Structures are given as structure tokens and as C-alpha cells.
Amino acid sequence: MSINWFQSIRAASILLLCLISAHSHAQLNIEIFGGGASRIPIAIVPFADENKLQQSITAVIGADLQRTGLFRLIDPAGLSPHAPVEVVYPDWANRGANALVIGRVAAVSGDQVEIQFRLMDVAKKSQLTGLAITVSTSQLRAAAHRIADVIYEALTGDVGVFSTRIAYVLKRGNKYALQVADADGYNAQSIIEYTEPIISPAWSPDGKQLAYVSFENKKPIVYVQTLATRERRAVASFKGSNSAPAWSPDGKRLAVVLTGQGGSQIFLVNADGSGLQRLSRSSGIDTEPNFSPDGRYILFTSDRGGSPQVYRMAVGSSESGNADRLTFEGSYNVSPDYSQDGKSFTFIHRNNGQFNVAVQDIGSRQVQILTNSKFDESPSFAPNGKMILYATEINGHGILSAVSRDGQTRQHLTVQTGDIREPAWGPLPTWK
Amino acid sequence: MRKLLGISLIVLLSACASQTTQPEVDDLTAGSGAGAGLGGSDLGGSGSGRPGYFSQLNDPNSILSQRSVYYDYDSYSVKSEYRELVLSHARFLRDNASASVILQGNTDDRGSREYNLALGQRRADSVKNMMTLSGARDAQIESVSLGEEKPRALGHGESAWSQNRRTDILYRGE
């Protein structure tokens, strides 16, 4: 009982909620496990004159590529070509490299830097692609991510996601911070900090706003906050609980879960909080809505069949109780999130008391369980559908983890102190 | 100690009401009834001005001093062993029209936070339904959920989890 008492004292002492927008010094550390059998061997030569910069470009490019599990880095030691005429292809073939990255950095004016890079095909002895970009020295990591995207796209044919951002909630002591960071965990910034829980961040399709649920007023209320201005508004603060925001693909509406009319049911509301419209109608729990990329369907979790399972309903048929049950294996399948092509979804599957990340193909209904940890939560597809970000636990601490779509590669993103949870992978940047 | 916890929570809620800057928010302390609004000044325990029924609620020999209903895993049905507790509070609300309660549903921390929020709501609603069927009025009861976000017991394992699968009955103004 003394613990209870202490908690309530602590609750009373945290009445003064504070809005803090200061930079967080949380640094995410990344560990990588496993890896696909057929990784592309690639050598990345440090760019000419990049050692004069505050930030190594090629180190960031290498780390980006390695995290996908699709690449194997070949040590370039002893060889340092920076232009095509300096490349001796047999040297690289002997080291087992299929691809080679070379380049140079040059100061332009003021704090502007020009970065030139080329991706060379070792077998064909020719250039595959190249790029010259001019950035300020404060944007060196962003430039490196952009180059990694170009390399990834040239060698895999898929869209790169190294220039995307992630959102998550960091709990430290009795403080909850909604943070946004680069996809590799760097440049973490607190969007908002409270002494009451924050859950369920959701990116607007243009990446400019976050919807989330805050308990700052002693019950869950849905807010939308603009990242650039930090301006925010309550979009669902009705009687009862307001939670589980999901954006429509056009960014004009949100699906939310309200309890004011009995049960937990899914409603649509305009992004400015107007035009409330009931969408689901069951006597049970309907929650965790997630729009299909074409906006026609919503996946959601419902216990209407006796246990929580993933269902799909058409958005057009409003106030219809009609929904197709999609999951049938096991008695607990929750937290669905569509892949970008709309053909599959990731979710949390419980088996023998373990909660794991799974993927189901919608057409064939085939399920693949991707993790083997104990307490996985909140899976979120990368915008290219190749990785899934989720929350899990190690030694009693909440951490973020990412697993490749095929389950072959996993990586942990950890912070020095605190619990990290509720991740959401942001959309592709608008220039892509 | 449980009584102290209840009091400090209500004080917390009351204090918040005076600070809120968003009138559209449906604050939990906005209930009507003689009990509402008294909590803040009552921490000293003088008892002056409190409705007489509070002494009954806090009599350790009365079942009314018991305020928590516990649940099985994944379940929101009120177990038979808590039936008399819930019905006693329902009768008390029926007989004291000015009394009102907040029911806070809670879950253990396994699984989805959003699903747990909905499950906690179902737990609070199940107690509310039982109370209204037994004579309490709808307006006397607000059911809300804290999901897995406010655990009473920390850590993993059934001993912690079983304490967190719970609906708490909090009287306004207590």
C-alpha cells in the first residue's frame, strides 16, 4: 500500500503540466541481428575531403544500407579512388564487391558544401548512377540519407526510406515525451512533454502533422499538432474516452474511437474536429482503425466474435455493422497496419502468452510470424513496405525494434534511459 | 491507506478543473451533486460541510469501504465474489441521490494499448450497468478508462497483473 500512496503523492505533485519543445538529447543506439543470405556486397570509399567536415557522409550511407539487411559492406582499406578514372575494377572484383561508391566533397560558399557521388557497377565497369547536391553543413546527415536512398533504389528497385522520420513516445521517470527522429534514430526532438500518458501517435499523410492521444486532462483526448509551428488542437474531446486516431489518405479526415454512445466505436471526424459521423456499429469493442492506402477500407480490431480479431469494413457503407473478419489463427490478433500497396497488413498475434509481430497477405490469408520476443506492440510499416517498426521489451525496458518484411533482419533502437514505445513510421518526404 | 489514495485522487481531479483552459473538454469533476467540489477543502479531514453519508462510505466494517472490482485476464464480466460489493454501492447511490461516482477501468500491460483502453472502458461499463440495473441513476455514474496507462502494481507476473485488472469506484467530493 505504501507504493500506492507514493504514486498518488507523485500524481498530485505533477499537476503543473508543462509544454516543453526543447531538443532532447536522447541518442538512439542501433544493434543489428541476422541478415539475409544473399546480401549485395558493396564497397563505400570515404569521399575526398569529407574528413574536413564535422560529419562523415559515407559512414551514414554505410549504416543506412547495412540496417536494411540487404547489403554487406566491403572494406575499402588501402584503395581510395574518388573519380571513375581512378577505379581499378579488378581490385574491387577481387575483394568481392559488386558495387562501389565513390565521391568528393567541396566547399562552395559560406557554410554550403557540394557533395558529388557515383555508384559504379564493378562487373560492367561502368557508372550506374550519380548525384551532385549542395547543402549547408547542418544538413550533412540529410544529404547522406538522400544518397543512400539513390543507391538503395538503383540496386534494389525499391523506394528508399532513409530520408523518412519516425515518431514515438519516450517515458522517463514520470515524464512522457512525444518525439520525432530521423529513421536512423538521430536528431530526436520532443514535440510535446507531459506528466500524463501519451499514446497512439499517427502521421498525417503529408508528414506535417501528428495526431495523438493525451491523458493530460485525466482522460484520453485526441489532438492534432503541426510539427513546424507546434500549434495544436483537440479534434476529439467528447464525453467518455477519445482515442486511436488514424488519418485518411487524403489527410482530410480522421477515424477515431469514442465511447460516448456506448462501447468503443469507430467514428469519422474532419481534421478540424467538425462533421462527426459514426462508422462502426457493434455491441462490442471496435478500435484501432487503419485506412487502406486507397481510402476505401478500414482495418480495425473488434471483439464482436468473442475474442479480439482484425476485421475490414468499407468506408462508404457508413453505420454499417458489416465487416469481414480477416484473422482466424489464435484468440488475440490486434493493432493492424496496412502495407503501402494495400495487399497485406502487419499486426500483433498472441501465441502461448507471447505477443509477436505478424504479417498477413490479404488475398491468400497467409500469415507469417516475424518475431520471437515476448511483448511486441504497435507494428508500423515503413512507407516502402520492406521493414516494420514496433515496440518491444528487453530487461524490463521498452525499446523500438525493426524487422524486415521477410523476418530475416532485426535491429534494436535503444535509448540510454527511459522506456520507448508507440512507434509510428512517417511517410515518404514530399520530394520523393 | 486506500481511503487516502481515493481522497488524493479526487483532490487531484478537482484542482485540475480550476486550471483547465479548454472549456470543450468534458472534465471528470463536472458532475453535479452535493459531493462535487468539496474535495479540495477536505484534505485536512475536518469533515465540516460534508454530506453525512461519507462516514458510512469509509466505515471499515462496511462493504462500502471496498472500492475495487478485480477481473480475470481478457475478461470484463464482474465475478460473483464482487457482486455484493457492486450492488451495495448501487443501493447506496439509489438511497443518496446527491452522491455520484467515477468508475475507472484498468487493465494489465500485456497487449495493445488501444485495445486495453477499450477493455478498461468495458470493465467500467460493466460495473455501471450493474449499478444502474440496481437502482442507481445514469447521471450519478461516469465510466472512464485508463487502460494500461496507470498501473497500481508495477512489473510483470500474475501478482502485479491481477492487481491492475480492476475497476475503481471513486466518490466525487470524497
Quick structural overview:
The complex is a heterodimer of chains A (432) and B (174). Chain A is mainly β. Chain A has helices spanning 2-13, 57-67, 89-94, 140-156, and strands at residues 29-34, 40-44, 71-74, 99-107, 112-121, 126-136, 165-172, 175-182, 189-194, 198-203, 209-214, 221-226, 232-236, 242-247, 253-258, 265-270, 277-278, 286-291, 297-302, 309-314, 324-325, 333-338, 344-351, 354-361, 367-369, 377-381, 387-394, 397-404, 409-414, 419-425.
Can you tell me about this structure?
The complex is a heterodimer of chains A (432) and B (174). Chain A is mainly beta and 432 residues long. Chain A folds into two domains: 37-156, TolB, N-terminal domain (Rossmann fold, 3-Layer(aba) Sandwich), CATH 3.40.50.10070; 164-425, 6 Propeller (Neuraminidase). In chain A, 11% of the residues lie in helices and 44% in strands. Chain A has four helices and 30 strands. Chain A has helices spanning 2-13, 57-67, 89-94, 140-156; strands at residues 29-34, 40-44, 71-74, 99-107, 112-121, 126-136, 165-172, 175-182, 189-194, 198-203, 209-214, 221-226, 232-236, 242-247, 253-258, 265-270, 277-278, 286-291, 297-302, 309-314, 324-325, 333-338, 344-351, 354-361, 367-369, 377-381, 387-394, 397-404, 409-414, 419-425. In chain A, helix 2 (57-67) crosses helix 4. The two termini of chain B are 14 Å apart. Chain B has five helices and four strands. Chain B has a single domain (2-171), classed as OmpA-like domain (60s Ribosomal Protein L30, Chain: A, 2-Layer Sandwich), CATH 3.30.1330. Residues 1-47 of chain B have low confidence and may be disordered. Chain B has helices at 2-19, 53-57, 83-95, 113-133, 158-164, and strands spanning 68-70, 101-106, 141-147, 166-171. Chain B is of the alpha+beta class. A four-stranded mixed sheet of chain B has the order 1-4-2-3. At the A-B interface, helix 1 of A face helix 1, helix 4 and strand 3 of B.
